[in-house]
Specification:
- The complex is a heterodimer of chains A (about 300) and B (about 400).
- Chain A is of the alpha/beta class and about 300 residues long.
- Chain A has eleven helices and nine strands.
- In chain A, strands 7-6-5-8-9 form a five-stranded parallel β-sheet.
- In chain A, helix 1 packs across helix 11, helix 5 packs across helix 6 and helix 5 packs across helix 11.
- Chain A starts with 11 loop residues before the first helix and ends in a 5-residue tail after the last helix.
- Chain B is of the alpha/beta class and about 400 residues long.
- In chain B, the strands form four sheets. In chain B, strands 1, 2, 3, 4, 5, 16, 17 and 18 form an eight-stranded mixed β-sheet that branches. A five-stranded parallel β-sheet of chain B has the order 9-10-13-14-15. A three-stranded parallel β-sheet of chain B has the order 6-7-8.
- In chain B, strand 14, helix 9 and strand 15 form a beta-alpha-beta unit.
- The longest helix of chain B is centred in the middle third of the chain and has 18 residues.
- Chain B is globular, with a radius of gyration of 20 Å.
- The N and C termini of chain B lie close together (about 10 Å).
- The chains are: A alpha/beta (about 300), B alpha/beta (about 400).
- Chains A and B meet through helix 4 of A and helix 6 of B.
């Protein structure tokens, strides 16, 4: 594995291997001194062209927990406002000597281009509405740690699938690991052709609610036009929102997940979001362990294991 | 000059013979021509009328870093084209006679400007159509954008029907295609890239054909990309409407699976469609429903394309590879090859097709249908070709335009 660009490039066995590694890092993160020297002397560049809270902080935390140094570029206050191209920015950052780049960009394929231009290992931290493979891994890790395994789990992914790189990545990983995935959304928020995704679809949340082990909620991506394709938020909530009434109908062992950021009162009722079923906090902390596993796999395998 | 030993397109069909050129005309066709003229050995090649491209972006005036008249005409010559129709989406746009006159060329590779349908290509008021007509414009288009306002298009059609001009439409409904970067389908769904659906093209063509029925104006569908548009054109022709259509070389070869590479060299509008569309387009060129191949040669500098797919400008170059691509993709007999690349576009321009016969203008291409070469070292100022580095089959060996050798080496 030289890069982690798309979850579709990773086999089910490789995913399980990364999750095994991440389980070990979960233990490391629980120690009094949650830090190992594995990547001491390595430098990881974070190239973030879109606003991000949890993903950028999570990569930063993961790199530092492995004792790597971190170079961070964010779009605000950079040369981008002076007209610098992605290529020139990537090559400038490369000239500062990092061993790996983590790239987030609003356009599909940007991390692939950065990999071509720089020759460095690249981790895709989200490109457009395309891929976000470490999100897929952290979701898989969270479910595996909660349920023991993913085989046979019934997962409903609800919301703005069309504009969601999380849906594209997480659905791919869960299907690869044996879960049954149903996409639940207004037709205007579904991609036009998902015949080769290996997933089912449902026209309303009520149709599948009682059968689900996992209800995975997505935000409406207003910034990508997600809010313009249904009549109103209240109509959306009426058919697709996880209201308190709907949450009460979930199976006892069912869990609620969300990649964040969350729009309380839209895709999920505020009380449900914080309820006992919610795995949202676990997703965030598992995200650090998964990113440690990815950085270790890409940079640490020739050294100490 | 004598072109010797080629298989020559005459009104009697293909004949192995010699062609003598003098003073801008073909003066003699016959076996074993003698004389101390310069000679070009065309053995094994087809000798026929210079190719005509109805759809070329020469970028002058306004974007000369991508292409200019000189580099664009050089590229045309290398590709066997002796006449190109320059699209009017320049800066300023070709919406009046004086801009058209600036672009017009007749020495060597001919440049025929296309004119805008609307002022500044803004889709609000008619361009200076009479003025453009007087400057030699015969094809009118807002190419790059669709004339979306049906009332405005109707007026343009009524006006141009009286003059005898052709309305050429870049068919892409702005509402259906908004935000799109590639064909809408399984590949765009997986890539998370907003798509331009096939119907964005088809609803415009369907609407326009009703206006053709109403106005009687000659109408040309630019760069047909879908099987559905092919059917609309077929039905319109069966109904006797004055309709013609073109397709690009890239739409005859590539489908949207090429975009899986996320390489911006595969970004163009209309986008690459499905493999079913590719099959329908190839069949339509072979059976003549699509009249001609036109390149939509759209140069962009390397740095402009060296960005993520969605951020890249649209378009690919095509002048230097078109003949080889058509040759390899369609395997046409020489008469059909010259019809789709030379005769049909000449007819759409309102001219007679010409044959290799005394008195015909010396616009000649010598094409070797079996020669192999690698597409590189383009004469265009830009290199945004999906065939860059590819092995090609069929090569232009000589281009004579208005009696001048504009590409190829002639022995003294």
């Amino acid at each position: 594995m030289k890069h982690l660009l798309s979850i579709d490039d990773v086999t089910a066995d490789e995913i399980e291997g990364l999750l095994d590694l991440a389980d070990g890092f979960v233990e490391v993160l629980a120690r009094d001194v949650p830090k190992v020297p594995t990547l001491r002397g390595k430098t990881i560049a974070l190239l973030f062209y879109e606003n991000s809270t949890r993903t950028r902080l999570s990569f930063d935390r993961a790199a530092k927990a492995l004792s790597a140094d971190v170079l961070t570029f964010t779009q605000g206050g950079s040369s981008v406002s002076k007209g610098e191209s992605l290529k020139d920015t990537a090559l400038t950052l490369k000239a500062m000597g990092p061993d790996l780049m983590v790239v987030r960009h609003g356009a599909t394929g940007a991390p692939w281009r950065v990999a071509d231009w720089t020759g460095l290992p690249v981790v895709n931290a989200g490109d457009g509405a395309h891929q976000h493979p470490t999100q897929a891994l952290l979701d898989a890790l969270t479910l595996r740690r909660h349920f023991g395994q993913l085989g046979g789990l019934k997962v409903g992914i609800v919301g703005d699938i069309r504009h969601s790189r999380v849906a594209r990545s997480t659905a791919g990983a869960l299907v690869a690991l044996g879960a049954t995935v149903t996409l639940v959304a207004p037709r205007t928020l579904l991609p036009v052709d998902i015949s080769d995704w290996g997933v089912a679809t449902a026209d309303s949340l009520d149709e599948v609610l009682e059968s689900l082990d996992v209800i995975y909620l997505l935000r409406i991506q207003q910034e990508r036009g997600g809010g313009d394709v249904f009549p109103s938020i209240s109509e959306y909530v009426g058919r697709f929102g996880l209201t308190r009434a709907r949450a009460a109908r979930l199976r006892d062992e069912a869990v609620v997940m969300h990649p964040g950021p969350m729009n309380r009162g839209v895709e999920v009722d505020p009380v449900v979001a914080d309820g006992a079923r919610s795995l949202v906090a676990e997703q965030v902390s598992n995200g650090i362990a998964v990113r440690m596993a990815v950085l270790f796999r890409l940079l640490g395998s020739e050294g100490a294991a | 000059m004598i072109i010797t030993g080629g298989s020559v397109l005459t009104s009697g069909g293909m004949t192995v013979t010699d062609v003598r050129v003098d003073g801008g005309l073909i003066v003699e066709v016959g076996p074993s021509l003698e004389g101390d003229d310069t000679r070009f050995d065309a053995s094994g090649c087809w000798v026929g009328p210079g190719l005509v491209d109805l759809h070329t972006h020469l970028r002058e005036p306004g974007q000369e870093w991508k292409e200019d008249l000189r580099s664009g005409r050089d590229a045309a010559a290398a590709g066997g084209f002796t006449t190109v129709v320059a699209m009017p989406n320049t800066t300023p746009a070709i919406d009046s006679g004086h801009v058209a006159a600036h672009v017009r060329r007749t020495d060597g590779v001919e440049v025929v400007p296309a004119g805008c349908l609307t002022l500044g290509r803004e889709g609000i008021r008619l361009a200076h159509l009479d003025d453009l007509w007087a400057a030699g414009v015969r094809i009118f288009t807002d190419d790059g954008d669709t004339v979306a306002d049906a009332g405005l298009l109707r007026r343009a059609m009524e006006y141009l029907a009286q003059l005898g001009g052709v309305v050429a439409q870049h068919a892409e409904d702005p509402g259906l295609s908004r935000g799109g970067h590639m064909h809408e389908g399984a590949v765009s769904s997986r890539l998370g890239i907003t798509g331009l659906p096939a119907v964005a093209e088809e609803v415009v063509v369907a609407r326009d054909l009703r206006l053709v029925e109403l106005t009687g104006c000659r109408y040309h569908v630019q760069h047909v990309s879908t099987a559905g548009t092919v059917e609309l054109v077929r039905q319109a022709k069966q109904a006797g409407l004055p309709v013609t259509a073109e397709v690009t070389p890239h739409h005859l070869v590539f489908d949207d699976s090429a975009v899986q590479s996320m390489d911006p060299v595969f970004k163009m509008y209309p986008p690459l469609r499905t493999s079913e569309d590719v099959k329908a387009l190839c069949a339509a060129v072979i059976d003549g429903v699509i009249d001609c191949v036109a390149t939509d040669h759209a140069p962009h500098s390397a740095h402009e394309k060296d960005v993520p797919f969605e951020d890249a400008p649209r378009g690919v170059i095509g002048l230097e590879t078109a003949a080889a691509v058509v040759n390899e993709a369609l395997g046409l007999e020489p008469a059909a090859f010259f019809d789709r690349l030379a005769d049909a576009p000449r007819r759409i321009l309102g001219r007679d097709a010409h044959r290799m016969e005394p008195g015909a203008p010396a616009d000649i291409v010598v094409f070797d249908p079996t020669a192999r070469w690698t597409a590189s070292a383009f004469r265009s100022r830009s290199e945004n070709s999906p065939w860059r580095g590819a092995e090609m089959r069929g090569r232009v060996q000589l281009t004579v335009a208005a009696g001048r050798v504009v590409s190829g080496e002639v022995a003294q």
